[in-house]
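Checklist before submission:
- one chain only
- standard amino acids only
- sequence pasted in full

Submission:
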Amino acid sequence: MNLEDRCTACMLGLAIGDALGYPVEFMNRIEIAAAFGPQGITDFVETRWCKRGNYSDDTQMTIAVARALLASDPRHLDDVMAHIRDEFVAWANSPENNRAPGQSCMDGCANMQQGTHWFSSGDPYSKGCGAAMRSAPIGLLYADDMPRLVQVARAVAICTHGHPTALASAITMAAAVALALRQTSPDDFLPLLLAVLNQDRGVAEFSERVSHDPLGEQTRLLEKLPQVLAADPEKAFDELGGGWVGEEAVAGALYCFLRSPTDFRTTVLTAANACRSDVQAKGKGRCDSDSIACIAGAISGAFNGMQNIPAQWAQSVENHALLNHLGKALAVKKMQIASAR
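Returned file contents:
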């Protein structure tokens, strides 16, 4: 596997996970079993709100991030964020933006369109998973430059989600993709991710906007992961949460990857079928399955490469040619950055 192969697998992998989870995003385990049988969803399906292989706003925003990184000078944050602003505003106004986009994402884009600086355009109280779900291209491009990865992931997050936990989740997601791309041993993922968060303490510089522990919510869930890796998915998601907020989505995706690190199919199907056991709880046991599976698919794709992704999914997921192109282009740009140092 070369760099181009793994970058392409990351982009296709996240879209595949998203497309598997999208049809069941608002369903609990009873509803999923009734619709698809006891194994849950196992393939792309068509529903009244999506065609077979369609992905959600998660992948749409990830494509926007990839395009912005490719168009900008990745060494200069202001240039990166100028292109992020343009891509996000274009996405927000696109007729294709009809896939239940998050309110924080839409509000942040509207604020930037009206001229608000990206640092102040995001909701300071929002820690939804929208900041983390789109961070994979950052992990690919800056895999060998962790300080810059942290800086860019934080900035791309804060333009829509200002809560410190959202920033921590976006950094963690991008760093996990970077570790996967570098073929880091799965046993080392959690210690290294915790080291990135605790060593950098970078999200603390934004803490004046929200009086809150800037790292604790994400780090506590990462520290809990070793205790739940052997648990069945329902019990694990009871502990890790439903994924509607950033720290839960990232922890849930890492659970799915780390319990089957060399098996892309198992990883994304575990994520796409994510449910909590208590259907009487708030949300009736439902999880943000498309976001969890999008994040898990990105990490697993970067780690395992194209050879581990079922060909029928890679060839039938929406816009697979574009995703393939973006993955290859990010690999080329990453190599150009390295050679310029």
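Reviewer check: The longest helix spans residues 320-340.
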